[in-house]
Amino acid sequence: MSVDRLPFRAEPPRRRLLDRVLARPSLAAVLGLAVVVLLFGLRVPDLLTPAGLAAVLDSAALLGIGGVAVGLLLVGGHFDLSIGTVTLASAVLTAVLVGLGEWGIWPALLTSLAASLAVGLVNGLLVVRTGLPSFLVTLATALVLQGTTLSALPLIAGAPRISGLDAAPDWPSASAVFGATAEVGGGVFPVSLLWWLAVTAGAGWLLWRTRFGNEVLAMGGSRRAARELGVPVPRTTLVLYALTATAGWLLGTLALVPAASVGATPSLVTAIDFVVVAVIGGCLLTGGFGSMAGAAVGALLYAVAREGVELAGWDQRWSQAALGVLLLVALLVGGTVRGRLRAAPRS
């Protein structure tokens, strides 16, 4: 007795490639990065010189630190639009303590870190206790912080900028940690690159190799199911917001120390940039899925596009248009991934 077998049909290569992209949305950011590097590398060869790479990586490092922190929060199903104003407010507080209070730089940095953590915990508590959308809660916090900082600095310092901070005690040691640079082939590379790598590696390890990471993934997938499984949702939420606030403080410090000065300038757009970077890197807005390495690649993509447009002499608004297209593609891919995750059988 013979049994007829149906002929095996291999999936077409295009289909296999699409499945891989949908399985790992961060691949879309990698493909986008390759395209913009090729485009601007041919159009503006200076972009690929050591000086051009240093400018790109300098911008990408700050975007990457914020994008990774916001991405980790997105995986947990939350937003934080206050990270940009925490960056500004923490730097201003440090400058006021050092420049006007005549504190040493390290006590001032520790105090601004404590204040930043307090803001993060307030955000987390408001989200947990009220049940309000984190987008609105952190938007309100951002507006309060930004308005207070922009108004208070001129009143306290008598000017919209505080400078000359490098005369503070122990400033050289802080500069070595947060403001050091290395010149390679004519390009000046800042120490923020090492901080970016450390934050990305640490966040990736935290998400995929620890119990806390499992709790974040479970909470982002379904908060109710996570509670039923015993996940401490309130505590996990508070820790996530504390980590995001810490990243904001780090960004403020990395901007303050090299310049030895700070000015009161609006920073809400920066928070939106971090969200864009995280989403382009494969973090779902609905939570439960994301890649810290993908968020880092998203930051690099953003920086290459912005620096390439500037070197090419184009209108900067073209870079915003291009990033808007990339964001839309990332959202569409993320929606498909979310649908697949919901349809996947669960044991």
Automatic annotation (TrEMBL):
Signal sequence, renumbered to the chain: none
Any single Pfam family the record assigns to this protein: BPD_transp_2
The UniProt record lists the keyword ATP-binding: no
Keywords: Cell inner membrane, Cell membrane, Membrane, Sugar transport, Transmembrane, Transmembrane helix, Transport
InterPro entries, per database record: ABC_transp_permease (IPR001851)
Residues spanning the membrane: 21-41, 53-74, 81-100, 106-128, 135-157, 188-208, 229-250, 283-305, 317-337
Topology within the bilayer: Multi-pass membrane protein
Gene Ontology MF term list: transmembrane transporter activity
Location(s), subcellular: Cell membrane
Chief site of localization: membrane
Cellular component, GO annotation: plasma membrane
Protein purpose: Part of the binding-protein-dependent transport system for D-xylose. Probably responsible for the translocation of the substrate across the membrane.
UniProt cross-references to PANTHER family, sorted A to Z: ABC TRANSPORTER PERMEASE PROTEIN YPHD-RELATED-RELATED, XYLOSE TRANSPORT SYSTEM PERMEASE PROTEIN XYLH
Protein name: Xylose transport system permease protein XylH
